[in-house]
Amino acid sequence: MNCPVGPDYNACLRYVRVLLSALLLLLAPQQVSASPPNQLYKVDIRPKGDYTRIIVRLDAPPRYSVSELPGHRLRLAIRDTQGTLFRKYRNYSDNNIGGLVFSRRGADMLITFAMAAGAGWHDVSRAQISAITLDVGQRFKHRSPEPYLPGREKIWHGVEKLVRDFDPPVKTEFLFQPTDPKLLKGMLDVAGQQSFMAAEAALYKGYFSEAEEAFTAFAAKQSSVRPLALYRLGETAYMLQKYPQALAAFREAEKLWPAFLVLNPGVTFSYGDSIARSGNLSAARTLLAGLIGRLADKKFAPVLLVRLADILARQGHDNEALAVYRTVAENFPDNKANLMARLRLNDRHFMDVTPWTFGRVAAVYEDIARKSGDFILREEAQFKYTLLEAIHGEPVAALRQVMAFQRLFPRGVYTTVCRNIRETLVVLVYRQTDWGRDPAGLIRFFEEQNDYLAGCMEQPEFLQKVKQAYADAGRPIELIRFFSGLLERQWAASAGPFLYETIAENADLLGDNVMAEKYMLAFISKFPNHPRARMIFERLGMLYHNEGRYQESRDKLIWLMRKGEKAELPESFYYLARSLWKLKQFAEASRAMTQFLAQTPRPQRLVADAYFVAASALESSGDRKGAIAMLEEGLKLPNNPRSDELTYKAGSLWLLEGDNSRARVYFEQVIAKGSDPDWRKLAQQALGAISIKP
Predict the structure, then answer these.
(1) Residues 6 or more apart from 47 whose CB is under 8 A from it?
(2) CATH number of the domain located at residue range(s) 38-144 in this protein
(3) Using CA atoms, how far apart are residues 152 and 391, in angstroms rounded to an integer?
(4) Structure-model confidence comparison of residues 442 and 19, the more confident one
């Protein structure tokens, strides 16, 4: 690199020196290790009744941490330590512990094992002693609080792996270099040139699926443009996080056109990063280090340094990686790499915070997100800030933060994770809120979180409370709309019967018989053996009767006539009887109405008409005396609104029986006491007819 003579010379020279020193760390990490690794050589496990003592012996006093994991597991992480992975302890178990798994994470040794239900742990290690001593048992269960607030278990599960291992594609500062049209002209016809340039434009604009489809088609053909198409396909697959496909495309392209990589540093980076993500960290480090050497005078180099430090960390050279992160963070304040390095350094503290200490770490992520102009980096920082709030923050505030993140990044790489987090927080907010004092608030909550209610569905009385809130607010239309939407959710399947029935009820309330019928029929079809199916049959029969569809009403209710059957709704026998009467099935109508009249309780508004229908059915079946007896029973009702009609009907039946004197008594009662002028007039006419008979 040649630094220009002038006022910027010293700054330029310092820049180069920093890059070279960092590059030295990257190329030869084994030579600059801060200290030789510790050595784990023995593990003693000593059951002591109500607790078990674990002693880990090392060559030197260790640096370590102990943390609890989901599933009531404990993890001991020993820094910069090597040793045997004692596989024989995988099957070990006693009353307090079981399944000890030894593994490596970079330069660290991890020991992970399960604790018995109700067990806790206590660290009894002594300073400056080359051993770690942990006691695990029931007596220590209150000594180690969970690293998250109650109810956050689902969020906490998998967080460590997400923070440590999740690695979205890196967007460098390399400018996209579209292919020279003159070059394409020698490879493709006019239509092909236009298609290839359109595919490159799609790649540049971030329409990766569209670009992938186009470049795949070009790469499938044996033509002069195939090597270039393979490179572009590799770039596209890299951005789609299809790293094996990207690597395969890059390797095939390199065989056909290796010189292209020298001229295109952005492609070289994607290639090297794809190699790293395939697990071949040494090859990736070599390729990217060479790229840095060629670009020492460019602003891109610090970003590549951070990426190479990531590779170092995965290779176990944690100290060297930290040194590079700190170098970049301290020396490149105006470069994107500064924020990348700060984020990596902040990640080191993510798993160590508590509900009382997470604010400082969260603030760093928030600051990085605010300052970053790079979408991918801003999204990652904002997500980690949001994740800390979700794990450790107050539920209402945490939920607001997750919702804000989703608005900012609606289709980002964390979409699925955010959905799960939001569902958990929605349950927590629901549980901690006294909705009885704020039914309107419950409606707002239900509508706002409508897509995230999977957990709430498991809460007793959740939907019942929502139903009641809508009923109190007089909003049946909105209730129908939202409950209909829930029927399309797989996670709401268990609530299907309640949803179908509620929608039908509210449709009936609105007078929408078509909708009510639709959802009642759907209920019967989907849940024929459900305890509420009988109720739905009865309501459907009632609906059909009120619409004058007497045969359908009869078909839905006739099962009530079977011996021993009881109606869920007292009025069901009434509507069955009336439908049978309308169908001129008088004997069955009489029996059904008698069943209705024998019930307690019975809807008073229907009783007077029931006596009339029962009497009419008996009359039509030839039992006039029975009909008269039924009418007389009906006339005993207090404040009977149909007293005039029943009295007149009784007189008419006695007249048909040929007992004019008894008929006269009933007609005279209508004339003397009747309140309806029409029935009094008819009674007078009937009485007159009796008087003039010979």
Answers:
(1) 94, 95, 96
(2) 2.60.40.3500
(3) 6
(4) 442
The dihedral sign for the CA sequence 475, 477, 482, 488: positive
As a whole number of Å, the CA-based R_g of the chain is 41
The token pair at 208 is 């990766």
> Distance (Å, rounded) from C-alpha 532 to C-alpha 497?
8
Going from N- to C-terminal start, the domains of the chain cover: 38-144
User: 83 in helix, strand or coil?
Assistant: strand
Taking CB atoms within 8 Å and a gap of at least 24, the contacts of 173-176 are 173/299, 173/300, 173/303, 173/336, 174/265, 174/266, 174/269, 174/300, 175/266, 176/203, 176/204, 176/266
Q: DSSP letters along 161-211, please?
A: HHHHH--PPP--SPPP-PPPHHHHHTTS-HHHHHHHHHHHHHHHHT-HHHH
DSSP string, 333-369: TTSHHHHHHHHHHHHTTGGG--TTTHHHHHHHHHHHH
Task: Give the whole-angstrom CA distance, residue 579 versus residue 564.
Answer: 21
Average pLDDT over residues 237-248: 90
What's the Cα-to-Cα distance from 630 to each of 9, 282, 610, 616, 635, rounded to whole Å?
116, 100, 10, 9, 9
Contact between residue 187 and residue 225 where contact means Cβ atoms under 8 Å apart: yes
DSSP 3-state of 150: coil
CA distance 276 to 243: 10
Supply the DSSP symbol for 221: S
622: helix, coil or strand? Answer: coil
* Per-residue pLDDT reduced to its tens digit, 348-407: 888 878 887 889 999 999 999 999 988 889 999 999 999 999 999 999 999 999 999 999
Among 653, 645, 644, residue whose Cα is nearest residue 618: 653
What is the rounded CA–CA span in Å between residue 191 and residue 197?
10
Q: Across 244-248, 499-503, 634-638, which has the greatest mean pLDDT? A: 499-503
Neighbours of 112 (CB within 10 A): 16
Please name the residues in contact with 122: beta carbons below 8 A apart, sequence gap of 6 or more.
Answer: 134, 135, 136, 140, 143, 144
Which residues fall within 8 angstroms of residue 589, CB to CB, at 6 or more apart? 577, 578, 580, 581, 613, 614, 617
Chain CA centroid to CA 320, Å: 40
Question: How far is 504 from 481, CA to CA, in rounded Å?
Answer: 12
CB neighbourhood size of 461 (10 A): 9
Q: pLDDT, tens digit, for every residue of 80-134?
A: 899 989 999 999 999 999 999 999 887 789 999 999 988 888 888 887 789 999 9
- Residue 26 pLDDT class (50, 70, 90 cuts): low
Q: Give burial (CB, 10 Å; 0-12/13-18/19+) of 221.
A: exposed
Q: 47 by DSSP, 3-state: which?
A: strand
Tell me which residue of 105, 110, 241, 68 sits closest to 171, measured CA to CA: 241
